[in-house]
């Protein structure tokens, strides 16, 4: 025989009447203190998902497994909801909410918060970032949303989520990788450490080549970093020295000086051609004296 599960909190009807259920929208409204901070049983039909929920993928098998657990043990941890008129929007716990619907529950225990849209987004994102099953790209996307949509600085975000600022910077940089490489990180083909090694290269083509080498040769992060360093050093050695283009009037001046001094003369200019230097190539003391005689 099945034991009837004891509810974790009182039903809304025991706390609020129909009128106050709709009218409580801020902490200063009458009756708010009876609702906020308490665990209450909220009808599932009154709950809806946050359309801006950071988590977009819910594994169907895992949801069904959780639903079976809920049928057997009930909900161990309440969800967190935002009161929205007579309805309630999910701040955190959408997975538990979905599994509870599968399990056939009529109501679920919840903490109620009274927050505005900005606070809702921040709470949902910060709660999301604390989960242990996020892949590195999902973490980076969540950081980026906190920076862009909530308007946090990296310093603020560092304090808010308890991570070093450098950790956040390195995480967000992964979003500059191509979708192919990002998918490789999300699927576990390569790690975030591999991704940072790939990011050290300066073109998409080189990054893609290193990505494919990592997978093909099953390189660890240290090996990937060494290969990236080799590719960068090789590129610098193979890069031909840039030859500055000398304007015609400089060429004429170069030839005139060479004819007058009877030595090889080279005029070198800066990249913008506005300044430069004259190099006089003398082979012996006699040629040097000849140059000096013309200068005097």
TrEMBL record:
Superkingdom per UniProt: Bacteria
GO MF entries: DNA binding
Domain ParB-like N-terminal: 40-129
UniProt key word DNA-binding: yes
One record GO biological process: chromosome segregation
Cell membrane keyword on record: no
GO cellular component: chromosome
Keywords (A to Z) from UniProt: Chromosome partition, DNA-binding
Family that this chain belongs to: Belongs to the ParB family.
Protein name: Chromosome partitioning protein, ParB family
Organism: Epilithonimonas mollis
């Amino acid at each position: 025989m099945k034991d009837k599960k004891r509810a974790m909190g009182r039903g809304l009807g025991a706390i609020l009447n129909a009128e106050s259920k709709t009218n409580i929208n801020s902490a200063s409204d009458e009756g708010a203190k009876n609702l906020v901070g308490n665990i209450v049983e909220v009808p599932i039909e009154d709950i809806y998902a946050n359309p801006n929920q950071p988590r977009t993928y819910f594994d169907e098998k895992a949801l069904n497994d959780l639903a079976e657990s809920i049928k057997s043990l009930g909900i161990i941890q309440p969800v967190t909801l935002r009161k929205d008129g007579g309805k309630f929007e999910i701040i955190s716990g959408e997975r538990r909410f979905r599994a509870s619907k599968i399990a056939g529950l009529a109501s679920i225990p919840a903490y109620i918060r009274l927050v505005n849209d900005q606070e809702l987004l921040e709470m949902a994102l910060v709660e999301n970032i604390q989960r242990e099953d996020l892949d590195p790209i999902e973490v980076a996307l969540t950081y980026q949303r906190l920076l862009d949509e909530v308007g946090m600085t990296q310093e603020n975000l560092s304090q808010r989520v308890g991570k070093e600022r450098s950790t956040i910077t390195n995480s967000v940089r992964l979003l500059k990788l191509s979708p192919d490489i990002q998918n490789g990180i999300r699927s576990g083909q390569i790690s975030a450490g591999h991704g940072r090694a790939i990011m050290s290269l300066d073109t998409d083509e080189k990054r893609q080549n290193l990505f494919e080498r990592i997978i093909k040769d099953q390189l660890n992060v240290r090996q990937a970093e060494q290969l990236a360093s080799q590719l960068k050093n090789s590129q610098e050695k193979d890069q031909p020295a840039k030859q500055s283009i000398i304007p015609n009037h400089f060429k004429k001046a170069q030839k005139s000086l060479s004819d007058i001094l009877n030595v090889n003369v080279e005029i070198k200019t800066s990249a913008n051609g506005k300044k430069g230097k004259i190099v006089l190539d003398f082979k012996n003391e006699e040629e040097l004296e000849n140059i000096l005689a013309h200068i005097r």
